[in-house]
Structure formats: structure tokens, C-alpha cells
Amino acid sequence: MSQKQKTILGIFFAFILFSLLKPSSVFAQKERFAININPVRGSDFWKNTNSPNHFVEYQKKIAIDNNFSVTWLIRPDYFLSKSENIFLNPEYKNDDLGIFLEVTPSWTKINNIEYKTNLPWYHSQNIFLSGYNQNDRLRLIDTAMDNFKQIYGFYPKSVGAWHIDSFSAEYLVNKYDVNNFLICSDQTSTDGYQIWGGWWGIPYFPSKNNLLIPAKSKADKLNAVVLFWALRDPLNGYGGGSHSLYSLQSNDYSYLKLNTDYSNKLVDIYLNQTTNDYGQVTIGLENDDLTHNIEYQDQIRSLAKKDVKFITSSQFYSWYSQKYPKLTPDTEIYGQDPLGTNQEFKWILSKYGRMGLFKDPSQEWFVKDLRYYSDNDIDPYRNYRNTENVLNWKITPRIDSVFNVGNTIPYNNQIKFKPSGFKINFKIIFSVIITLITIMFSFKKNKIIPTLTILAGTIVLSLTMIRSGLFYDFGLGYWGPNGHDGIWHLSLINQLQQNIPPLNPVFSGTTLTNYHWGFDLFAAFLGKLFNNNSFVYFQFLPIIFGLIIGYLSFKLVNQITKNQKLASLFTFLIYFSGSFGWLYTLIKSGNLGGESLFWSMQSVSTLINPPFALSLIILLWGLIIWSKNNSSDKYKIAVINGIIFGILSGIKVYAGILAGLTLVIFWFFDFLKTRKVFNYNFFTWATTLIISLIILGSLGVLKSSSILEFKPLWFTHSMVESIDKFYFPKLAAYRINLSQNLNPVKLPFYLGLEASLVLIFIVGNLGFRVLGLIPIFQKIKNHHLTSFEKLILILMGLALIIPLLFVQKGTAWNTIQFFYYFLFFSNIFFAQFITDFLKIKSKKNLIIIIFILILTNLTSISTIKDYLGNPPPSAIPAKEVEALNFLKNQKNGIVLTYPYDQYIKNKLKLSTPIPMYLYETTAYVSAYSNKISFLEDEMNLDITGFNWEKRKNEVINFFQSNEEFAARGFLVNNQIDYIYLINGQKITLGESQLQINKIFDNGQIQIYQVQR
């Protein structure tokens, strides 16, 4: 081998050896970036003797000396003022100009938005966009962006603030193409801002729902990169209080008597000791901090000597988005204590969570921080305005040694972050499909019209239910009465899965009485089967009930009349007929609405009252059997028929009362005619009475005093007196004056007025169904009423008379539910009118009927519109859902909640969706924790006759009490196990005084367990 060949071979082996020893410097050279970001505050709250430009000029000189461009985040009060704007000078043209989203008075004043001058400017309610409702946030952003463009000629790509809510961030990206956000690194308490649980200082593409965590999928990704202000020491920065001062901010570490040597060590960690193939640090200082200029300059100069490339924020986004075009890769950051001890740290950062590992010399690795990121980790301020003077932006931990959550555990490789898979409930899907197919093919081919009517009607009516109880970006949403009534039923369903009869879910220590829970028992069984009570209540049963009601309605009328067209019309009307409320609102405001303007709900709202819907199914089933057998001597069937009618008392007491009285009255008139006591009708009503008494006795109704109170014409009077009804104050005042000054002359006017109000009540609620009175009068006049029609007219008469004469104790308007059955069966005679009218075959008649049917649907259309709108009126925020799920997994016990205050909602001027704890007094804690509450849902306690006022006073006294012994005694004597609090809800006494332990805290909700 020649000398030349030996030399070449030696060089080759040396190159291979060098490559093996120094892989990073040859094959895997890290790219290292430094971004100099300097927030610039304007004249609002400026207290320094120098102008806002003074430190900016100093910072710019340092940048020029070290030959790099700067990202300036300019607060709107700076560029909205008439002061000198130095960023228009030529030397700043290559810099990145962005907006610093700190809200100040001069910014809000332009938009006529309230700024709380009684609070310090840095309080979270004032300073962050999250302290304002969503509409105000958009106005503030638009004003700032438009003025920025007018002044600088472009929309900024860079935006920063210590907290940026995800709603504002998404708007900035989608409308203004912002591509990077600067937020504050983890801290527990500085300035009252708790930011805790996100990635430890490494940039990422954020989730659309929360800038604190990375996106898990393209659908979840916000197309911008998150950068961190005040990068924390990965070891010493993990802690409460002053631990956040262990950061890359010169003003922070200088306060701790540390210098640039410490800064260099932190810089080296972030530039070199990560598993990324790049390193990145953010360096900067606000322009109102003039006391650390020398250290800031030393820090920049020291950094400039390193192997690092200075770029702007928007330039980093361009590089980052090309490097990682899809999602942010998982990473780790590791190293030794920059303060010189032998402690080691490692942060494992995944799209699905973070893990903080710490190791002392000669010891094993311990997990001191562990969090799993889920789709439910939604920024608590995305949809809800921050009403507190603190910021609580955190991800709930499994282990957090700073907040004493969970237990520190030795690390093993079994702890992995995995995506939460989507599970399909095949039982649910199969059940729905089979039901739909069964209904569709239960009719013959020549009955396609009723089949399609039933399917269409079910879909429309189900829209009032199926969107409620589902999880959205704001949490669990509820439309219409589902925000109260639906939640009450869920709480009751939970208890029926544990006890029969059920314990009162909202009034601990009592059994529920004076309430029909037959529907809830049925739903509880299905909830167990599907392992999802909410799905059964809001999605499954509405569809099933809608289909069955339509099927039985068609079957009943078709069986009675042998007229398929009449039966089809009746089926159509039970889904779509409505009141004349739309006419009133159209004339008064130009809008369609007014479903319950005359007090009663209409067909479209059938399913929002599931006990009513189920009672219709039972009632229709009973009527089908009765109409087929009532003239026979089949007494066994009569008993079965009576059992079916009797069951109504356990499902809907109002239906049970109507069915029982109707059967008795019908039998009595039949007896007067035939003088025969023992017949089919006798055994039917007798069985109905026995079953009803048994059920009502078991429900505790018979033990209480009368639930009805005699108040004639309460509904017709309140109809014209209530501003949300058929409000007619002059007529109401005239009636009151007449009633108080009656004499023989005024009596006829008074009686005429009362009769007119009754007529308005009936006709207004009936709408075009009032035309059904024509065939009724004709049949009565000609003595052509069938037995079935007589029975239905008796039922309708009772359903009208009872609410006109009686109200329910506690909640007067509840007796309007009798009237629902009047409206339902009035559709039979309306369908009869249409059928008779169309017997004269002409285009004119057909057009008239089509026009009438369209008009009778207007109420339904206006109501459905409300259920299709966004956002819903009320919701359980995501952070509360998380807390309630935690509480659900704790052992059974009584939960104490903060007393409901109906005035706070108006005081806070919240936009929708309103958090459930403010929206209404409901049973939501009981419903979603599967626990019994000490006191919730005062409305249903009124309905069921429980005296809750005294207990509420006791609760208020407990939370306000300074007497340790009395407060502790309250908890023990009432066997309270948990206290559930939302931010802003406080207990006067401390944890040690009350002997309670905090077992949950996600920044928004705190749960305490009472020691025994």
C-alpha cells in the first residue's frame, strides 16, 4: 500500500471515529435561536420620570450594537396616544412590531367598555381580555388591530400577554393571521396570576381550546406558535411563591442576588439540553422596568457571544412551521441544577401530558408532577368572563408536589402518555337503528305518509332535547328548560339507581315525596343498561318517545275512525300545531315567537317534559285498548286497562287524575243511561282508582295536605298581568278595579270581562285548533258523538276546568300541565274539521287548508329556532365538569354547596352561556356527582313541599361564621362529607379550624373533605 493510500485510509477512519464521538456537531447540529421580545407599555399608569420611549431607545441601541432585530409588543395605549411614536423611525423598519394585549382605560374608552377603576390596573379583571365578555373582546381586538394598521401600515403577526384566552387567540389567527403568541411561563402566584401545568418553556402549536397545552390533532391545532415569557429554571422554578423568580428575566433573578452566570446556565439548558433538534430562548424586558438595564445589557451581550441566531417571533414561526408542518413533536428537557447542587431534573413533555422528574444525589428518579392533557382541558376563560381579581389558568394534576396533590412516586417506564381513544357505544347505536327500522316497517306501503310524518315530527321535536347535555368547548350545554328540569331528572335518576323509593337528591336526610318518579325509574333502568344517564335522558328517550307517540296516535285515531287521512292529520298536528302567540309577537315586535304567551307550552315542546311524553304513551295505549273493548264484557281486559291507566299516577299525577275522573264520569253517565253498575267501564275505573291510590301512597302524596289550592281564574288574570305573557296592563287594572268595587251595575261588565279573558286564554292557546270546535258543536247538536268522543270531551273538559279553578301549592303555575292534555286531544277535532273541509274537492279549499297548516306551524318554527341557536342559555363549564367527575369517583356522602343567589347573575352582566351555578337554582352538583346535596334546587323543593328556607339560612350562617365551634358543629351534625366551592365562594374560617382537607383544586373549583 502506497503512502498516499495509507494517508487517505487514515483520514477516512479518523473521520468515522470523529463522527461517532461527535455526532451532534457533525450530523445533528442543533439550530439555536434567541428571540428578543420587549413589551412596550404606553402612558396609561406610567409613573417613571422618563417617557415610555426612554428604555426602548436603550434596548434598540443594544440590538444595533449586537446586530439583531427585535420583536416589540406594543400596548395599544402607546400607539393610540398622540405621543412620539418612535417605531415609525427608519431604524425600526426591520423589527417585528406586534401588540401587547394588556387592557388599559384609553383602549376601553374608545369602545365604551367599562373599565374597573376601583381595581389595580394589573388585576386580571382589568388587564386581560378574559376579564371582558366575548363581544367586548372582539371590539377591543378590532379597534387595536385597525388602529395598528392605520399607523404602521400592516396587521401585526406577533401578539403577547401573560394570559391570552383561546377565544381571542383563535379570532386573532383566523381574522388577522397572527402567527405567534407570547404567554407567561408557569408561576403560582405572581401578581395574582396562577399559570400552571403547561409545557415547561418549549414552544409548540397550541390547542384551539387552550393556549396552555399543545394541539393533539390537526383539527385541534391553532395555526400559531406559543412562546414563553420568563423561561423558568426547570428545577428551582418549580415551586410556589418566589420560586417563579428563578427565571431568565434579568429583573427576576437579580432580585435573588443572582447574575449573568446564572442566566447563562439557564440559556445553555434551553439551547442544548432538550431532545429537540433545535434550541430556543426568549429574552426581554418591559420598558417600564428601568432598574435592571445593566443586567439586561450584560445578559444580551453574553447571549450574543454564544452559537445562537437572533431572529424575531414571526421569523421563528416561519422556520418552525416549515420544520414541523403538522404537529409539535414530543420532547424532553433535562439537566442539573443551575445553582450548582447535584440535583437533576427531567421534564417529559407530550401532546398528552407532562411529567416532572427530579433526582437527588444517590437516589432514584421521583415523579413530582404529572398531568394528562384531555379534550376537556379547555381554557376556563374561553367562554366565560373572569369575574375574579385573580387568574387561575391551570391544568388539573394527578401529582403536584407544589400543591400537595397526589403522592410523589418513583419513576418507572410504565408511566406513559397515550391518546384518549374514541369509544363507540355499539349498544346505543344498535338500539336506535333497530327502533327506527321497526317503526318504519310497521306500516304497510300504503301508509308511507304517516310513516314519514312520524319520522319528521320526531326529528323536529327531538331538536328541543338532543343538543343538551353534550360537551362543547364551553362545557356541558343546555337549551331551554333542560338547564333546570333536565338536570333535576338526572339527579333523581341517580338516586333511583341506588334507592327505591329515592332519597331526596337536593335535600339531604329526607326521602323524596309528593313527586311522580315513574318516568325517572324507567330512565334509571335504561341508564344502567347504557351506563350513561345523560345520553338516555337527552338523546335516546326523546327519539324513542317521539316515534312511539306518533305511532300510537295514528293507530288510535285510525282504529276509531277507520279514516287514514284523519289519522295522518291528527299525527301531523300532535307534532306541529301551536298557539296564536306568533300573531301577537309579530304585531308587537315584528318577530315570530310567543309559544307560551297564553301560559301553556305547545306541541313542539312535548319532549322537554319527558314525564308528560311518557304519560301520553301510556294514555294512548290505554285508550287504544279501551276503544276496542269498552262495549264488551271482557272484564279481565278491563282490569288490565285499569292497571295501565292507574300507572299514569306514578308517571304524571295530572294525567292520573284526569284519567281516573274521566273514567268515573263516563261510567256514571253510562250508568244513568243503562242502569248497569258492573260493566267494562266499572272495572276499568275501579282498577284505575286502586292502582292510583297504591302508587300515590308510595309517593307520599296521600300523606300530605292538599297539593291543590282553589284560586279561580289565576291563569287568566296572570296572563294579562305578567310582562312575559299576553301583557295587557290596562285590561288587568280595569279588572282589578271592577273586582274591588262590585255592585249590581258593574257586575255584568265584570263577568263579561272575566269571560273574555277565559276566551282569550282558550283561543290563544288553541290557535287554529279552535276550528275543531265546529265539528264538536255539530256532533253535539246532531247527537252524533261516539263513545270515544264523549270520553275525550270529558277528559278535555276536566283538563280545562281544573287549571282555571285550581293552582298548585308552592308553585302555582304547575297546574297548567293539566291543560297540556286538552291541547293534545283537541287535535282530533281539528283534524276532523280539516277532513270535512276537504270533502268538497277544490283547489281553493286545498290552498286554504295548506295556508292554515303553515300558520299553525309558526309557533313551532320560532321555538325550534331557539334550540338551534348558539351559544345555549346555560352550561356547566369544563372545569366544573372535571371537578364533578372527580367528586363522582369519591365515596358516597353529602355535599354542601354555596347558597344560590339570584341577584349575582344580573350584577355580573354575564353573556351566555351562563354558568349553571349562576343561571338558576338547580340540582347540577347532585346530578353530575351522583351525590346527595345538603341544599340545591329550591324550585323543586317548593314544588314538592319541603321547607328549605330555614336550611338555607343555616348554610349562609356557616359560610359567614367566625365561630369555630358552631361552624364545625354544623358540618358534623348535618353529616356533611364534602364542600364544593367555585372561585369567589369563600368560607370565613380556615381549613384547620373546620377540620377539612382540600382534595381537589383545578384553579376554578375547590373540593374539601370533612374530617371525621
Compact description:
The protein is α/β, with parallel strands linked by helices and 1012 residues long. Helix 7 (134-152) crosses helix 8, helix 10 (260-272) crosses helix 11 (293-304) and helix 27 (773-782) crosses helix 29. The model is unreliable at 7-28 (pLDDT under 50).
Residues in helix, % = 40-55%
Number of strands: 29
The biggest beta sheet reads: 8 strands, parallel
- The oligomeric state of the chains shown is single chain
- Please tally the helical runs, counting DSSP H or I stretches of 4 or more residues: 39
Global outline: elongated
Please mark out the parts with pLDDT under 50 across 5 or more consecutive residues, or reply none: 7-28
Rounded to the nearest angstrom, the radius of gyration is 36 Å
Write structural notes for this entry:
By secondary structure, this protein is an alpha/beta fold. It has 39 helices and 29 strands. The strands form 7 sheets. Strands 1, 2, 3, 4, 5, 9, 10 and 11 form an 8-stranded parallel beta sheet that branches. Helix 17 runs antiparallel to helix 18 and helix 27 (773-782) packs across helix 29. The chain is elongated. Mean pLDDT is 89; it is low at 7-28.
Topology (elements, then pairings):
Elements: H1 3-21, H2 23-26, E1 31-40, H3 53-65, E2 71-74, H4 76-79, E3 96-100, H5 105-110, H6 124-127, H7 134-152, E4 158-160, H8 166-176, E5 180-184, E6 193-196, E7 206-207, E8 210-214, E9 225-229, H9 250-255, H10 260-272, E10 278-283, H11 293-304, E11 309-311, H12 313-323, E12 331-336, E13 344-350, E14 353-359, E15 366-372, E16 391-394, E17 399-400, E18 409-410, H13 426-440, H14 448-462, E19 471-472, E20 475-478, H15 485-496, H16 518-530, H17 533-561, H18 564-576, H19 581-589, H20 610-629, H21 635-651, H22 653-674, H23 680-698, E21 708-710, H24 714-721, H25 729-740, H26 747-766, H27 773-782, H28 787-805, E22 806-808, H29 816-837, H30 843-856, H31 858-868, E23 874-877, H32 878-888, E24 894-897, H33 904-908, E25 914-915, H34 916-919, H35 924-929, E26 932-933, H36 938-943, H37 949-960, H38 964-973, E27 976-982, H39 991-994, E28 996-1001, E29 1005-1010
Parallel strand pairs: 1-2, 1-10, 1-11, 2-3, 3-4, 4-5, 5-9, 6-16, 23-25, 24-26, 24-27
Antiparallel strand pairs: 7-8, 12-13, 13-14, 14-15, 15-17, 15-18, 19-20, 20-23, 21-22, 27-29, 28-29
Helix pairs in contact: 3-11, 7-8, 10-11, 13-17, 14-17, 14-18, 15-16, 15-17, 16-17, 17-18, 17-20, 18-29, 20-21, 21-22, 21-23, 22-23, 22-28, 24-26, 27-29, 28-29
